[in-house]
Design a protein that fits this description.
There is one protein chain. The chain has about 190 residues and is of the alpha+beta class. It has helices at about 1-35, 55-60, 75-80, 115-120, and strands at about 65, 90-95, 100-110, 125, 130, 135, 180-185, 190-194. β2 and β3 (about 100-110) form a beta hairpin. It has 4 helices and 8 strands; from the N terminus they run ααβαββαβββββ. Strands 2-3-1-6 form a 4-stranded antiparallel β-sheet. A two-stranded antiparallel sheet has the order 4-5. The protein has 3 domains: about 1-35; about 55-135, 2-Layer Sandwich (Alpha-Beta Plaits); about 155-194, no CATH class.
């Protein structure tokens, strides 16, 4: 008799949990619909959390990078400084993710591409006592680096030995005529005669 009551209570609790799970699924689908509106319904300048690559490239083509921004600047002040260039959709001041302090640069997205050309005239203008740098925003592509930091540091054969300066062990004139054991790639030993 006691076992039957426990079994019925467990079944009732499982039923409640299944109903709650179904409600959560419905709520999640409603939130997803609100977060990703139809592309025909959304305006081209409307911010969205999920952008396709094409949308990101198009938004970046309407955006500028502003460097040497005063750390106590606000988005409203930056928008006011660039208001003569055209309609501003968004001002983003980048902050350090650990401290929350501004990094000293910002991105401004305009409503049209012509505003970017107009904003370039404000390069080296004074904003809050600082000479700001204004450049068109570039689009970063995942997995591609535009810098020269692809694993090689230093010059010559120095890169294989941890970046020592000229004349250090492993440089072209370093151990001429002697055997040298070093490491390359995934720390596998190799024989390197000079």
């Amino acid at each position: 008799m006691d076992d039957d009551r426990e079994l019925e209570a467990i079944k009732a609790r499982v039923q409640e949990m299944e109903e709650e799970a179904e409600k959560l699924k419905q709520l999640q689908s409603e939130v997803d619909k609100q977060m990703m509106p139809n592309s025909s319904a959304s305006s081209p300048g409307a911010p969205s959390t999920y952008l396709t690559i094409e949308q990101k490239v198009e938004a970046d083509a309407r955006s500028i990078y502003v460097g040497n921004v005063d750390y106590s600047s606000t988005a409203e002040e930056l928008e006011q400084h660039f208001h003569g260039c055209g309609g501003v959709n968004r001002v983003t001041i980048l902050c350090d993710k650990f401290t929350g302090h501004p990094k000293g640069f910002a991105y401004i997205e305009f409503s049209d591409k012509d505003s970017v050309v107009t904003a370039m005239a404000l390069d080296e203008s004074l904003f809050r006592g600082r000479q700001i740098k204004v450049m068109p925003k570039r689009t970063n592509q995942p997995g591609l680096s535009t810098t020269n930091r692809g694993g090689r540091r230093g010059r010559g054969r120095v890169a294989m030995f941890g970046g020592f300066g000229r004349g250090a062990i492993g440089f072209r004139g370093g151990l001429r005529g002697r055997a040298f054991f070093g490491f390359r790639g995934a720390r596998r030993p190799y024989f390197y005669p000079y």
